[in-house]
Every structure is written in C-alpha cells, then in structure tokens.
Design brief:
6 helices, single chain, 231 residues, alpha/beta, two-stranded parallel ribbon, 8 strands, four-stranded antiparallel sheet
Amino acid sequence: KAKVQRMDTDSTSQKNAHQTILNQFKNQEIDILVGTQMIAKGLDFPNVTLVGVIIADTALNLPDFRASERSFNLLTQVAGRSGRSNLEGEVIVQTYMPDHYGIQAAKNHDYTGFYNQEIMFREALNYPPFNYAATILVRGADEEEVINTAYNLRNALDLIQADRFPNVEVRGPVAAPLSKIKAKYRWHLLVKCDSSDDLRETIHIMNQSTRATSKTTKIEKIVDIDPISML
C-alpha cells in the first residue's frame, strides 16, 4: 500500500516538478522515493530511516581514474540521508564487490582510510594529483563520423606530441562507457602530462588544428580538464 514516486530527469522535466516531489516526500504523502543520484545529496528529511542503494559498484567499473572516489563520495552522501533525527537509520548497499576498499570505507565513513588507499593507486598509475589529465569526448548521430573524428584528434595529438610536447601521453580513442546516449554515439580519449601548461597548450593547439574540419560536421567535441590541471 506504500506510495512510490520516481525522481529523475524524466519525472522532473516539468517546471517545479523537482520541488513538488520533495515537498510531497517531506509531508509524507510519498512513502518511498526512488531516484538517481539526484536524491543522494543535500536532502534533509528527519522521517527517513532507510536508504537502499542498488548495484552500488556500477560506477566502480567505469574506465575513469576517479571512479572509486566518485563511488565513495556518492555512497557516503546517500548514507547520510538516513537517520538524520532521533530516529535510528539504516543503510543497505547492494554490491558485487563488498570487499572493495571504496565500499568498505564508505560503510565505515572512513575518509582517511579511503584517501590512503586511493592516493597510493593514483601515485602508482601516475594519475592526478601526481600528474595532469584531460578527457576529450566526441559525440554525434553518425557513428562512423564520430569514430573518424576521434582518430583524427588522436592523430593531431600525436603530431603535437612529436613536434613540441614529448611529455604528453595519449590513450584511446575508445568507445565511452555509455557509448550511446539520446541517439548520439560517444568516443573519448585521455591526455596526460606532467605540466599543466603543456597540457592546456596541447589541447589549444589540437582545437586550432581541427577547427576547420569540425565546422563542416555535426560532431561535438567536449574537453574535460581535471580541476587540478587548471591550477
């Protein structure tokens, strides 16, 4: 007999839908709120005594050096939605990887333990904060054109590396973990460098050298530089 409500991008597409759902949940007009990461952070409802996370390790398997960090952050945030008053709270996490250090650290709210393990892996693999990194996402409706564009970017980066920045490392292109979203195919590359200036200059030169061809296509190119690389 419980009333269940979804909260995701589809159910909140209309104006004020987001706040309407939250108000209904706060007023206990909704018994169970099912949602995406949208409901994981920042909500304060004293009546919530149970939080469940389904397949909590999905993000851990994404090819992203921040995967463990993001999973740990999400789990600790969503766990904090339960038991925020005098009522006792409970959190149930479903996972195929219960022994993963990120899951265990989130279970114990152990930030220091997570950091010590994560920073060791980052250093061993030369990922930020020990290096600088950027991802380049290529997306479009024509899969062949997306793939060709991604490889053209790789060729441009290889030329820049050989000509000016031998300290730049390029990986990919490969299909993105979510290889197709809203009828658009997605491929990406990873660029690493020990100098933030060289990394940004490499991306700038790549953009300049591929600008002419990008104007003649409907392919989108999105550069995501890790925040530390902007310092």
